[in-house]
Structures are given as structure tokens and as C-alpha cells.
Amino acid sequence: MEIQRLIGLIGLLGGQDGTDPRVTSARESARSALVARGGAAVPLLLAELREDDGPLGWSEAAFLLRRIGEPALMPLADAIAAAPSPSAVRRARFAFIGLEVPCLAAYAPAVCHPHPWVRESVAYAFQARGTGAADEAHRLVPLLADPVEAVRRGAMWALKGAGEGVLPLLRGLRRERGGPGASRRAALEVLASVGGPQALDSADRAALRRLIRIRAGGEVPEPMAPCGPWFALPTGDQEAVLDAFGLSHPEPVTMRLGAAAWRHDRHTAPGRHGRCSRIYVSPELDGWTLVFGVPSPHAHRAAATAAPGGLSPAGVRRWCAELSRRFGTAHWYGMRCTDDWTAWCFAEDGRVVRAYDVFDPAQASGDRHPAELPGPLPHEEEFPPGSFDGIAEADATAFLASFADVRRDLGMPGAPSAAEVAGRASVDPASLGPQTKITGQALLALTACGRSYGHPGGALRV
User: Fold this and answer.
1) What is the CATH number of the domain that holds 58?
2) Structure confidence at residue 321 (pLDDT)
3) In which domain of life is the source organism classified (predicted)?
């Protein structure tokens, strides 16, 4: 009865003026008194958690269960397992993940709970602690081999979030030859995600290099999704390319891995230097070597101007001119998957002959390149101003949609993207395939930032 009375009082005070210090003090006193009842209060709070119109409200019940801490842990685990609806699962998980326990070891009994929702919730609880979970991360190891994929994935996310403090644990797991294969594979992915290739020990690095050699031998080029800057140089001399970009420590990789590294570094690489630590240098593709990424000095200078491709327009032109002195011709292309930005720059014999950026067409230089013809440039309207004066907006929209269909069916050229211009002038990364002639080996090489900070963390497809 006392617990029920406290629940009613907290609910009543919750509906009063929240700015009145007397109400606030009374409500907090009632909360503290209820929490002091510990496990005895848990059944009634769980009932409140399930109700939509109880005196407390489910969120208040959840926060009180969190404050009770360990006595509420296994009852909440059972509530998750028995939840009759997705909303009931979310409510119970909310309370479970945020329990105020002094140490994550309290969650150990729930690791072996028969219901996968509970085991997955344990992983969420560890993930919520971030690097604070490192000391107890060994308790997640059984979940890496869980029969349910969502549980395995949750445990991996939690270990990744725990940071570098879990690296010794994961290296030890990799060396346990008698352990579950799933755990060892997951440990390898987390090691790469947290610490990058340098986090692997010598045996794992040797195994990875063997796998790359095997897969690179018969690899068929795959289309890439351009998002970021890349250069195209008419050469197969990779040593000269590495020297021209100030790269070192080249590591042979598959083209798939190189492309994955470019995407990862562009979008999700952690840390200040994640986007500028390494560059993917392709093998020779139809007579051209493609270089994906931005050398670190240029990337840091361009960051101050928020240049879309990681290089300022002036930096692009200087680079292309400098590279063309060495290779005769140098192309630079830029695209971004988040908007319509597209740009390109061509240089020959130390001189920029054409530069275009859809976001700054007034600064374009040089005559239109044959690869841009015959359609309009991306910033240009296909129809002159006033073409749709006096026509209803719906009719104009329908006409433009129909025109786009006709143009596609007849193969009529439209405004080109950087990838399409590249396909006509050099090599289109989005059109790589079995028809592409390959010479040499794909490489990942370190920039100046990479030499100082190493490869960014991240697991990549081989």
C-alpha cells in the first residue's frame, strides 16, 4: 500500500505547477522514498511501464526503474522477453539500457538469457556507455557467436564504441584457435574498425595480404559510385604517380578494397585526419591511372574554405597544371552524392585548358572540351527563358517529364556529370567492368597525415 500511495502521489504532483519549488521538492522526496523500496517497488513500476494511462506515465516509471538499478535488471529482462508489442519492447529496453548500476558486470546474468531481444539489449546497454564499457567488454564475447545476427551485430557495435581499450581483448580472441569461428571473424572486423590495419598483429596482416593476392589475381573491375574528387593521369608508372602525390608505404589491395577505402574515408572515417590519411591509386585502366582522394596539405588548406571536393578551385588548377608538366596531361573530376555538385579540370603541358564547376560557372575557363559536347552544361537551362510563359505549372511539369523520357529513349544528350565527361575524356569509374583493360595492381598509400597518424579505423571489403 505504501508503494502504491507513493506512485499515486508522484503522479499527482507531476500534474501540478512544475515551477513551484515546494511541488518540485515534494515530488523528488516521493521519488526518493519509492526508489528506496528497491526491488519491492519493481512489480508495480513494471505495471506502470506497460500502461498508457496509469497515474505515473510510462516515462516516469522507466526513470524510477533506472534509479532502482540492479534489483530491476532481471525483471526488466523478463519484461522485454514477454513484451506483447513493439512499443512495450521499446519502453522496457529504455529502462533496461539506462539502469544506474555501478558496473556493467551487473548485466552478466542477462548475457545468457534465452530470449534474443534481451541479449541484444545487453549489447545496447554496453554501447550506451561508449569507452566506459572497455573494462567489462569481455562479457560481450559470447554474443559475438550468438545464433541471432542482430545480437552479434549489436555486440560488435558495442565493442567498436568501447574504443582502443578493447584491442588487447580482441587480439587475444583472434589467437584462441579453439574458440568459435564467428567470434574470431567478428573480432577481426572490430579490430580493423577500431584501430585500422595497424591494429592487426603480424599473423593477421600476413593472412590479409595472402587473401588480397588471391582475390586480386582474377579480379574483375566493378563500377564505382563517384562521390568525391579523383585525378586521371595517362600513365601506368605508379612509382611516378606515388612520387607526384607525395605518397609512401603503398600496400597492394584489390580494386574493391581501394574503392571501399575511398568511400569510407570520404563519408565515415573517424578523427580529424580520417579523410586525408591515405589515397587509392588504381591499376592502369584503359591506359589511365586514377587517383582517388586528396593529399593532406591540400585537404587541410581546402577545409578552411569548405571546398566541395576537398580542394579549392585554385588548388585544383594548380595541381592539374603541375601534374600535367610531369605526365603531359592531367584531369581532375569531382562529384558528390549528396547534391548536384559536379566539376572537372583539364591541363596539358603545364597549362589549364578547361575548368568548370557547376556551383561557380562564372569562373569557368577555356573552351568547352569535346567530352562536354553536345548537350548543355549542368548549370544551363535546356529551354530559353520564357519558354513556358502562359502555361500551367502542371502542364509544364508533365511536358518536361515526357521530354526526359523521349530524350532517354532516343539517346539524346543531356547535361553531363563529371563521371560522364570522364568516360569520354579518360575513364569513367562508374562504368568499370569486364570490358576494362587492367595492367598492374591497385594500391592504398599513405599521405603525410597517414605517415603521422596511420590508416583510419574501419573494416573494408576485400
Assistant:
1) 1.25.10
2) 94
3) Bacteria
Residue burial 7-46, b: 16+ Cβ < 10 Å; e: rest: bebbbebbeeeeeeeebeebbeebbebbbebeeebbebbb
371-397 as b/e: b if 16+ CB within 10 A = bbeeeeebbeeeeeeeeeeeeeeeeee
272-336-244 Cα angle (round to 5): 65
Average pLDDT, the chain: 83
204 and 226: one domain? no
Q: What is the pLDDT, as a whole number, of residue 309?
A: 58
Beta strand residue intervals within 104-152, DSSP E? none
Q: Is residue 51 part of a domain?
A: yes
233 shares a domain with 146 = no
Choosing from 167, 184, 208, the residue where a domain stops is 208
Whether residue 274 sits in one domain with residue 251: yes
Q: What pLDDT shows up at residue 1?
A: 62
Whether 408 is covered by a domain: the verdict is: no
Taking the model in full, what pTM does it have? 0.69
Instruction: Say whether both 30 and 95 belong to one domain.
Output: yes
The Cα-based distances of 394 to 300, 391, 398 in angstroms read 47, 8, 6
CA distances (Å), 271 to each of 18, 157, 447, 457, in order?
42, 18, 15, 9
- Report how many domains make up the chain: 2
Do 217 and 440 meet the contact criterion of CB atoms below 8 Å apart?
no
Rounded Cα distance between 39 and 43, Å, is 8
Asked whether 73 and 110 are in contact (CB, 8 A), the reply is yes
Residue 281 has pLDDT above 90, yes or no: yes
* Per-residue pLDDT at 324: 95
Kindly state whether residues 44 and 135 are assigned to the same domain. Answer: yes
Mean pLDDT of 277-306: 78
Provide the grid cell at 6: 507513493
Same domain, 25 and 114: yes
With vertex at residue 201, the alpha carbon angle to CA 200 and CA 205, rounded to the nearest 5 degrees, is: 70
Please report, as a single letter, which amino acid is at residue 170: L
First-to-last alpha carbon distance for the chain, in angstroms, is 63
Cα separation values, 456 from 253, 277, 283, 445, Å:
16, 7, 22, 12
Q: Which domain holds residue 243?
A: 222-380+415-453
Residue 407 belongs to some domain of the structure: no
Are 204 and 261 within one domain? Answer: no
Instruction: Tell me which of 182, 208, 234 is where a domain ends.
Output: 208
Whether residue 140 is found in the same domain as residue 181: yes
CA atoms within 13 A on the CB side of 400: 13
pLDDT band at 304 (very low <50, low <70, confident <90, very high): very low
Residue type, 208: L
What pLDDT, on the 0 to 100 scale, is given for residue 414? 59
Q: What is the SS3 assignment for 220?
A: coil
